[in-house]
Amino acid sequence: MIGGAALTTLLGPDSTVWAAAAAAFVLGVGFGLTASPTLVAVQSVVGWDRRGVVTGANMFSRSLGSAVGAAVFGAIANATLADRFAHPPAGIGAELPEHLDATSVVLGGHSQSTQPAVADYVRAALYDAAHHVFIALAVLAVLGLGALLLMPRRSERLTFD
Fold first, then answer.
1. Which of 7, 40, 96, 127 is the most exposed place for a label (fewest CB within 10 A)?
2. DSSP secondary structure string, 68-83?
3. CA 67/CA 79 separation, integer angstroms
């Protein structure tokens, strides 16, 4: 996961689709390889009669983490875009779309009055937003490794009486 997160932070505005796909592939493999070990670690500390409970709790926590993660990363991207659109360069401020949802109109070239400088600024703002999300992902991956290293190596089975 850390390798994939590092690769995503290294993506630049001129990166190819293949570079982005490779970074996403490494990141996906990292996420995939963490799923089974964490489930086995949780299951190994309880008896057979509680394995269903901890498996369900693990799946619920994973789903909850995905939802919260999507919200947090979306908030980071939206805050970055809002900041970039609130403080544009002097020459293009009037040409920017009124809403962030209208960026596709600028980038798609649907508007005849769109200047290339405006489209370039919108692309740069979108790049900044994605880059901030990737940096947050890298930080989260490092924190996850830290949590893994803090886990006890061996423990007794928990009993619930």
1. 40
2. HHHHHHHHHHHHHHHH
3. 18
